[in-house]
Specification:
The complex is a heterodimer of chains A (415) and B (254). Chain A is an all-alpha fold. Chain A has helices spanning 3-7, 20-28, 33-60, 64-69, 72-75, 91-111, 114-130, 142-149, 151-164, 170-189, 207-233, 238-253, 256-270, 279-304, 308-316, 321-336, 338-351, 363-373, 381-410, and one strand at 361-362. Chain B is an alpha/beta fold and 254 residues long. Chain B is 41% helix and 24% strand. Chain B starts with a helix and ends with a helix. Classes of the chains: A mainly alpha (415), B alpha/beta (254).
């Protein structure tokens, strides 16, 4: 060996087999005989799967069923004549959608976050794209198309609100979000006293919007309820502890379908008799509580994984018990169990489909009932369910993608 | 009220009074009637084999461990089960742990300013000003915006000292502050503690650092099996220990 490489070892290049394309192939795909065989076999499977899958999607499949389903896919029977007698109610869900675009724009403006920006433009963009669907003007009027297009200016409007007005604080945007959620419910449900907000019975609600309403309500409520239950389960007060354990074990121990059945008879008992209720409300209560029970156990797992020295250090500084919990224990516990929490959110979103049990037509049930009542589309069931699976996947993958970004932001696994 | 009288009589003199303190973990008798006092500005080092109750003793002083019998009076406040008294004492007593126990989800600056803003209700800018002074004092002013995991062990322990000092305590408790550190980092932490002692801070330190005890301590307490077996000035203690158990302990570590 010549002397320069010895005196300057940092100048030595790694062997060819360790760098570049060949190095990568060698390290990752062909590092041993067994791995090479594995690579070739799984590669062959992948190519065959893709070949037949893509061939079916682009050549064999007949997607007209999706087009035929149209708006029902998103709104169920909401826009039908029976739902909204003598009036046109189409603008109400559209207005709700515009508010959502505005809210997403505000979320983007708040922190200038790239993920929020992508989500906001994606939602508004897809909504606006619906305006150009090649339906006849009779099926899809000009007014609907204009309202859909209004989602595009709603995003920058929300962004500007959060940027340049006193609206731009986390608390206020959160309040705006909650307000928009309830406003959406009121818009869809209607108010008896207001002439242009004729009540629409929840039996006509349906489609993807029903899944989303149940999921958003369930997700935002099950996290705080779950936290409260987890803290209650670790409480020193025996009564609180026993109640929380009882609640968690009961709601975890009974299948959601059973709970949904029971909800129709049992939930009314838990609320004042004269309180107006409907099947959607009962289902939402049960789904939320069911999810909270699981959430509580996730959070409790996170709390138990904390080093006892963390709470000790906080107490030694003179922080009272509740501040120790809110500022030290909970933030770390939640951060550590983000994957489990998001898993629970995803589970909740998929479980919203189970409301078909109590006769509500969620996006899956709408598709099924459409095929049942139109037998000529029976052969298209395959296309329909592949499409539904893809829609669910897009939403759940979105959730895991965002949770990954949140983990990156919080530095999970790094500190 | 005999206890009240002695308390008021001694509170000017002694900042910590332990009288016949007993502590059981289940049926294990960890402290068997410990009595001692600490004067303001005194630096006391507690030595002893593991399991002798030294950590338990200093952890009873800010009530991280609850004693079952006897009295502990800190800064004139009787440490009873009363939660307000406990929080009052904890505000005046800073503690540094063997495993640092910095809050990993907060930056160095947030670690230090948390208690002053939440407990003392200082403004954020005031707390940050104090934090910056303290970070300079412990020698790491440039690390304020980092997270604990980005620092070395010695730097983390110095942040932990700064965090405890930010509450402007009257007493500092050190529970084996250098035991989790690499040798080259022990010195940087001991230097900070030395400087702190020279400013007149009252310190109770559990440590195995004999050099530190010799050089800095005003008094050395030797514990064994839940009892104080010897209490003396460091010179006296290290050259001429009276108790047999202390002689044996010193012959093993020196």
């Amino acid at each position: 060996m010549a002397s320069p490489p010895l005196s300057q070892p940092e100048g030595m290049l790694p062997p060819r087999s360790e760098v570049g394309v060949i190095g990568w192939l060698h390290a990752n795909l062909f590092s041993s005989l067994f791995n090479s065989v594995l690579t070739l076999v799984s590669g062959a499977l992948l190519v065959t799967g893709l070949w037949f899958g893509l061939k079916w999607i682009f050549l064999a499949a007949d997607w007209t069923v999706i087009a035929e389903l149209g708006g029902r896919f998103l709104l169920g029977r909401y826009n039908t004549e029976a739902a909204c007698e003598g009036q046109n109610c189409f603008w109400r869900p559209q207005a709700a959608l515009i508010m959502v675009s505005l809210l997403l724009g505000a979320a983007w403006g708040l922190r200038g976050n790239r993920v929020a920006r992508t989500v906001a433009w994606l939602v508004a963009g897809v909504s606006a794209a619906f305006a150009f669907l090649p339906y006849s003007l009779e099926t899809m009027g000009l007014d609907v198309r204009i309202l859909l297009l209004l989602n595009l200016p709603a995003v920058p409007l929300g962004w500007a609100l959060a940027r340049y007005t006193p609206m731009g604080t986390g608390t206020r945007v959160t309040i705006l979000g909650v307000a928009i959620f309830f406003l959406t419910l009121i818009l869809l449900r209607g108010l008896p006293a207001v002439p242009f907000l004729q009540p629409v019975s929840v039996v006509y609600w349906g489609g993807l919007s029903l899944n989303l309403i149940l999921a958003v309500g369930g997700i935002t409520l099950s996290l705080p309820i779950g936290i409260a239950l987890a803290l209650g389960r670790r409480s020193n007060l025996p009564v609180v502890k026993v109640l929380c354990v009882f609640f968690i074990e009961v709601f975890r121990g009974v299948p959601l379908i059973t709970l949904l059945f029971m909800s129709q008879t049992l939930v009314p008992l838990a609320f004042p008799e004269d309180m107006p209720q409907n099947s959607l409300f009962r289902a939402a209560v049960v789904i939320t509580l069911f999810s909270s029970a699981y959430m509580a156990e996730n959070i409790r797992g996170g709390l138990q994984a904390l080093h006892p020295g963390q709470a000790e250090a906080a107490r030694a500084l003179g922080l009272p018990g509740w501040q120790t919990t809110m500022l030290i224990s909970l933030p770390q516990a939640i951060r550590n169990v983000i994957p489990a929490i998001v898993g629970q959110f995803i589970g909740l979103f998929k479980d919203t489909s189970l409301v078909y049990i109590i006769g509500m037509l969620d996006v899956v049930a709408i598709g099924r009932s459409f095929i049942q009542s139109n037998p000529e589309y029976l052969p298209s069931a395959r296309e329909l369910f592949v499409f539904l699976a893809a829609v669910f996947w897009i939403f759940t993958y979105g959730m895991s993608y965002i949770s990954g970004k949140v983990e990156d932001y919080l530095g999970v696994g790094r500190r | 009220m005999a206890v009240e009288e002695t308390t008021t009589g001694q509170e000017i003199e002694d900042i910590i009074i332990c009288r016949d303190v007993h502590k059981w973990y289940g049926s294990f008798h960890a402290l068997k009637g410990v009595s001692t006092t600490v004067k303001p500005g005194e630096v006391v080092v507690i030595l002893g084999p593991s399991g002798s109750g030294k950590s338990t003793l200093i952890r009873t002083i800010n009530h991280l461990e609850q004693h079952q019998r006897g009295d502990i009076i800190v800064d004139g406040i009787e440490l009873s089960g009363d939660i307000r008294n406990i929080d009052a004492i904890r505000r005046e007593v800073g503690m540094v742990f063997q495993s640092f126990n910095l809050f990993p989800h907060l930056t160095v600056m947030q670690n230090i300013t948390l208690a002053p803003t939440k407990v003392r209700h200082w403004s954020k800018s005031q707390a940050e000003e104090v934090a910056n002074e303290l970070l300079t004092r412990v020698g790491i002013p440039e690390q304020a915006s980092k997270f604990p995991a980005e620092l070395s062990g010695g730097q983390q322990q110095r942040v932990a000292i700064a965090r405890a000092l930010a509450m402007q305590p009257k007493v500092m408790l050190f529970d084996e502050p250098t035991s989790a550190l690499d040798p080259e980092m022990i010195k940087e932490v001991l230097d900070v503690m030395r400087e702190l002692a020279s400013t007149g801070m009252t310190m109770l330190t559990v440590t195995h650092e004999i050099g530190f005890a010799r050089e800095v301590a005003d008094r050395v307490i030797m514990m064994d099996e839940g009892n104080i077996v010897e209490e003396a000035e460091p010179n006296e203690f290290f050259t001429n220990p009276k108790n047999e158990r202390a002689q044996m302990f010193l012959s093993q570590i020196l």
